[in-house]
Amino acid sequence: MIVLCVANNKGGVGKTTTVVNLAAAIGKTGRKTLVIDADGQGNATYSLTGLVHPTPSLYDVLMEKISLEKIILPSNEEFVSIVPGDPRLQNIDIELAAKPAREWKLSRALRLIDFEYVIIDTPPSLGLLTQNALAASQHVIIPVSLSEFSLIGMDKLLATIDEIGDELNIEDLELLGVLVTFYDETRLSRETYGILEKKFEERLLTTHIPKSIKLEESHRRNESIVSFLPNSPAGLAYTDLAQEVIKKSKAS
Amino acid sequence: MIVLCVANNKGGVGKTTTVVNLAAAIGKTGRKTLVIDADGQGNATYSLTGLVHPTPSLYDVLMEKISLEKIILPSNEEFVSIVPGDPRLQNIDIELAAKPAREWKLSRALRLIDFEYVIIDTPPSLGLLTQNALAASQHVIIPVSLSEFSLIGMDKLLATIDEIGDELNIEDLELLGVLVTFYDETRLSRETYGILEKKFEERLLTTHIPKSIKLEESHRRNESIVSFLPNSPAGLAYTDLAQEVIKKSKAS
Ligand SMILES: Nc1ncnc2c1ncn2[C@@H]1O[C@H](COP(=O)(O)OP(=O)(O)OP(=O)(O)O)[C@@H](O)[C@H]1O
Ligand SMILES: Nc1ncnc2c1ncn2[C@@H]1O[C@H](COP(=O)(O)OP(=O)(O)OP(=O)(O)O)[C@@H](O)[C@H]1O
Ligand SMILES: [Mg+2]
Ligand SMILES: [Mg+2]
Fold first, then answer.
1. CB contact under 8 A, A126 and B90
2. pLDDT band at B91 (very low <50, low <70, confident <90, very high)
3. How far apart are the CA of B177 and the nearest CA of chain A, in angstroms?
4. pLDDT tens digits, residue range A54-68?
5. Which end of chain A is more exposed for a tag (fewer CB within 10 A), N or C?
6. Is the torsion defined by CA of A37, A39, A42, A43 positive or negative?
């Protein structure tokens, strides 16, 4: 079972859009995929099912009130199931802070299930939810938009992920790659892309996700882009991303 | 002294862009304005000064190691000063959780200073940093982008802000308004704008901020849009927003 999380404390860089569409594209290859919505906003849950804040949810699993397999839901995408998130996750830091093994709740919960891929969506924060996601994962993908704020946050983000890995003694967490999102051909974007290429070299994933209003539209339809418009630039990009992720995650 | 915070737990909806440009536009009217960067990403600090994570910062104030006026910095904008943020703010929830009056640290710190306007930038979260910002404020502005995720989060966000107001017994916090950001004329945007108009009626601010690459460009120049391109659609919008905010905040 390959577990990967999508993380970036910068808001709105395409974490959820990547989780949903990467999972759906992997599902299209016939591989059983589980999405974990570890974000109290429940955006991945909504996009994949049309449900708003269903309960019970991941919150109840992390608080050890229910076991994970009891709350797995089917999604609108073939071969993709989901563990939903709800708003009680938003203040879980305060509730989990004093508990033993507080960063390992998700990791433990995942031991009882079996999928080919598990993909975890995280909130724009480096608190306990994201730490639980990292501790449970073998791989992390970091989406980065071609904006100044997204770029300048990258060094600190990578350093913090390393720190978390060390402090928690996470044995096998590695960076699968940095994923450029909101890619277009404006001068500002091309400048930033050039900086990212130099900075990250082979850690920059080959696939980049183009800016596309179709991605917003597909969330509204509660359909992935690879179901809605597989041959659009965004659809092709997420299909390519799935191939790149499958190859890279098997290789390690 | 009028204290207002800009809040929304959804990422990337234009909180920082609004804080920076609203503050600059108010500064252009000759009113002494203080920006508080209550977000560990330090985006407002970077945009207004070019500095990345200067210390000491708001973190040291909230942890009661230094008093606020000692860390106020000038910005690149006339009449605008800033209390910077740094990454230690990102895990302050865990550090503050056990302290007495943990949501009131910022409110207390603000008693010692005098500006005409104080504008607080918050992270995409409803944790202790945002709670400190709300407890310190008389007004809150909620930026909302014309996207599905931003829209569906609104009910829960407003309910949570009310809840926080009640639980903390914040006497005079009121919603100054909902601010539409990333406004354009696409069908998807016009649909969402229509829904927001119906839903919020007079609570929807008259000014809306157009989608404009110039706003991204002005962050890179460490210059506000009202200094860089005051007569661009985005520059005019933030100038109008300042007028609307000044009028509404005086009226209450
Ligand atoms: N490549 C793209 N082109 C155009 N729009 C996009 C693209 N990727 C994402 N979006 C849109 O941008 C918004 C932000 O994306 P998304 O919610 O996936 O980011 P996020 O990092 O998960 O945000 P948060 O930090 O709040 O969890 C959404 O409205 C989404 O539909
Ligand atoms: N009206 C707009 N038109 C075009 N780009 C914009 C607009 N408003 C903001 N942006 C850009 O969108 C990105 C997100 O904006 P911003 O950082 O202000 O959002 P935020 O809500 O503060 O994000 P976070 O939740 O991470 O704090 C930035 O790169 C910014 O330059
Ligand atoms: Mg998200
Ligand atoms: Mg911000």
1. yes
2. confident
3. 21
4. 999 999 999 999 999
5. C
6. negative
